[in-house]
Design brief:
Distance between the termini: 46 Å
Number of domains: 3
Radius of gyration: 29 Å
CATH superfamily of the largest domain: Aldolase class I
Number of helices: 26
CATH topology of the largest domain: TIM Barrel
Largest sheet: 8 strands, parallel, barrel
Helix content: 25-40%
CATH architecture of the largest domain: Alpha-Beta Barrel
Length: about 775
């Protein structure tokens, strides 16, 4: 059997972290009050985090900090300030989504280990290579992957010195993480900012299949799949739940710890998951892991399912039985809460008392003695102290000038220098000067070296990372830009739209290429002026087919929404543009892609407002793109979305569903807003907003920023309709870009209804 994987637990507050430690977690992940993807959790202050690290390390538990959101330009200064504070406190890793943050960590905070968040949607080998270039130590693999895919990717990642982790218990997302915009569009609360309102779990108008929660997935639980997970070679088993309470965390971690112990000590797995089912759940499934993507992965109830499960088990699945079960579970949870409170009451995150005494005489090194409970050590300066005498011309290597006499080692100065340990999880009541001569001098740089050596020893660091100032981007004077018009199509019958119109032509490839590989190969070889656009999700053989296509057609340029294809484009020296679903929202992200992967341009995220876009600084010789008209893709799912909406003859997906199924339907929420469920040939299931995105304002709002504005003329059915032909639309948008009077009003008249709420609100 392969090595015992890490058990990674959620910590939404201090008590939950303590509960995870008490239950035997190998690591916990937690967030601060800012910059993390669980704003609904209580989260921690920096002082709390320092105390948590001390507590965890005393109990052989690691601590990973979640910084897993996309970051707008205005936040970079505060982010750097935060990184300066946390880089030397002993963190075991930071969990990251934003490319700009990856760039900052690589260049300035190399001591912090980097974990790629689930929001980076990692599901193919190229993405692993891409992240390896950015010094990522661990990747969280997509929840939609099956055991074979996890096994292959884990082996590949290990060959590139990267660890893998997978979610094994807790909430499922219906969408591939990181590319869900449903909450952003509908509520103005972006999932990429940790503010997802979970509209997929909301009640909808009852469907033809009699369901009122047709998009609500059960929770993931791979409790009985543990042996296969271990054999897959995955390095960490991650439990979801940073908004759950401490008794939930304890019960779930404890159950998983016992299951791991049974597997390794007795080579058997327990078959009782009653403890897990007694905690909050929406029902359980391991359908994705087992490659059995079936209709029973959904549940028509988003609330706690524990009482219903117990009532059904007792054979009393009726109103009375459910109420009795609720009472029993409430009483049991009350007992668990009391038991866990007793276990964690002694777990202390308060600052540790520390004593520092300093001694030194002329001609000897400065000696700093440090003593805490269970730890004591001495640190010496590399150079000796020098006595500064009034009127002397020199003393040793340091002349007795005015500057040196001002910087002599006095009590106040030493207090200020070493008081920094107060912000490292220790309480320093006083500094003692023992056998210390007056009027001694040591260069300030040497004093700082001693101070940092103390911090390295106290926090068990490999090295000390000095604080940095906010890196300044190089501002290039914007030249007068005359933006081009670009048209996105997905059907070969629409190629004529770019003939003679002056518009650049871009062609969106399907998620599954191998079914019609030769046709696409011939198409691009015969139309070298058309730019291929690669989709976000390319798993297994679909990814390999995409790489093969890239190698064979060698396009003049490409757009990629998948970092795996971006990696290979870079390696093949093919100019590539970062697509709109890579969520680029700050200048440092653009810098990252330019400097690390020779990216030639990027789409700016449609989640940004005018103000948030306007402050972006692009690298030199770098093009910016923006889509001003398109159907709003809210999510892409590996699951079939039609089971509980319009129905499907199949109970589960088979090998013909992705290439052969084409259908669409609608659902309506209780506000009577419409959403379109769409399944195209060779594509995954998608949900589109009822209204298309149209933003004609940006052309005048932000001049001289964008190289090209995109319009999406694919045949995606929504409530939005255009009363003109596609050729006429191209003509009208061309007039808009050329500044023709009345062009904006004309477009707004012929295309309706539409929305640009994201541009108005931002993130």
């Amino acid at each position: 059997m392969k090595k015992n994987p890490e058990l990674l637990a959620p910590g939404g507050d201090i008590d939950s972290i303590k509960a995870a430690i008490a239950a035997g977690a190998d690591a916990v992940y937690c967030g601060l009050n800012r910059f993390n993807a669980r704003n609904r959790a209580e989260n921690l202050s920096i002082d709390d985090l320092i105390g948590v690290i001390r507590l965890a390390h005393r109990n052989d538990c690691q601590v990973f900090l979640t910084l897993n959101i996309i970051l707008i330009e205005a936040e970079i200064s505060a982010l750097v300030s935060l990184l300066n504070k946390i880089v030397n406190i002993g963190l075991d890793g930071v969990i990251v989504q934003d490319f700009g943050l990856l760039c900052l960590l690589n260049e300035n905070f190399k001591s912090l280990k980097i974990h790629a968040s689930t929001q980076l949607t990692t599901h193919n080998e190229g993405q692993v290579k891409f992240l390896s270039q950015l010094s990522v130590n661990r990747v969280n693999l997509c929840r939609e992957l099956n055991l074979n895919e996890i096994t292959q990717l884990s082996s590949f990642a290990h060959a590139h010195d990267i660890l893998t982790e997978v979610f094994v218990h807790g909430s499922h997302c219906l969408c591939f993480s990181g590319i869900c915009y449903m909450s952003s569009v509908q509520n103005g609360t972006s999932g990429n900012r940790g503010r997802c309102g979970q509209p997929c779990r909301e009640q909808y108008i009852t469907t033809s299949q009699g369901k009122t929660y047709p998009l609500n997935l059960k929770d993931i639980s791979t409790f009985f799949d543990l042996r296969q997970l271990v054999e897959s070679g995955v390095d960490s088993l991650k439990i979801e739940g940073r908004i759950k309470k401490f008794h939930y965390v304890y019960a779930v971690v404890d159950a998983w710890r016992k299951q791991l112990r049974d597997l390794y000590e007795q080579n058997s797995l327990g078959q009782d998951d009653n403890v897990l089912r007694s905690m909050f759940n929406r029902g359980f499934t391991s359908g994705f892991l087992q490659g059995n993507i079936h209709k029973d992965m959904f549940i028509d109830n988003p609330r706690d399912n524990s009482a219903r499960n117990l009532a059904e088990k007792n054979g009393h699945y009726n109103d009375k039985g459910i109420e009795q079960a609720k009472t029993k579970i409430y009483n049991e949870r009350s007992v668990i809460i009391q038991q866990v409170e007793k276990k964690i009451v002694h777990l202390n995150i308060e600052k540790i008392p520390i004593e520092i005494s300093i001694s030194g005489k002329s001609g000897t090194p400065l000696k700093v003695s440090v003593k805490t409970a269970g730890l004591s050590f001495n640190v010496f300066s590399d150079t000796v102290l020098v006595k500064i005498s009034s009127g002397s011309s020199s003393s040793g290597n340091y002349p007795a000038n005015k500057k040196n006499t001002k910087n002599h080692l006095g009590y106040d100065g030493l207090q200020k220098t070493f008081r920094v340990v107060d912000s490292s999880g220790y309480h320093l009541s006083d500094i003692l000067l023992e056998d210390f001569d007056k009027d001694l001098f040591l260069p300030f740089k040497e004093i700082k070296t001693v101070q940092r050596a103390v911090l390295v020893a106290l926090n068990d660091l490999e090295t000390f990372t000095p604080p940095i100032a906010v890196p300044r981007g190089v501002r290039h004077r914007d030249k007068k830009i005359k933006p081009s018009l670009s048209v996105l199509i997905a059907s070969r019958k629409d190629v004529y739209l770019c003939d003679g119109t002056g518009a650049d032509c871009y062609f969106l490839l399907p998620d599954c290429l191998q079914e019609n590989f030769s046709e696409y190969r011939s198409f691009f070889l015969n139309n070298p002026h058309i730019t291929p656009v690669f989709p976000s999700i390319l798993i297994g053989e679909h990814f390999h087919a995409a790489v093969d296509l890239l190698q064979q057609i060698q396009p003049q340029q490409l757009v990629s929404n998948n970092t795996g294809i971006a990696y290979y484009a870079w390696k093949m020296k093919i100019p590539w543009i970062a697509g709109p679903y890579l969520n680029l929202v700050n200048s440092y992200g653009l810098k990252c892609l330019k400097e690390y992967f020779n990216c030639s341009g990027a789409f700016i995220s449609n989640e940004l407002s005018q103000m948030q876009i306007n402050v972006l600084q692009k690298p030199e010789h770098f093009n910016l793109f923006y889509s001003i008209y398109h159907p709003l893709l809210l999510m892409t799912s590996r699951q079939c979305l039609f089971h509980h909406v319009s129905g499907c003859a199949k109970e589960c997906l088979d090998e013909q569903c992705i290439p052969g199924c084409k259908k669409s339907t609608t659902i309506h929420n209780l506000r009577n807003e419409t959403f379109y469920l769409t399944k195209e040939l060779n594509m995954y299931n998608c949900i589109y907003n009822g209204l298309n995105f149209l933003n004609t304002d940006i052309v005048a709002d932000i001049p001289d920023k964008f190289t090209s504005f995109f319009i999406d003329l694919r045949d995606i059915k929504t409530n939005t309709a255009a009363i003109e032909t596609k050729l006429e639309l191209i003509s009208m948008f061309s007039e808009l870009l050329h500044g023709t009077v009345g062009a904006k009003e004309k477009i707004n008249d012929v295309i309706s209804p539409v929305t640009n709420s994201q541009y108005m609100k931002g993130i």
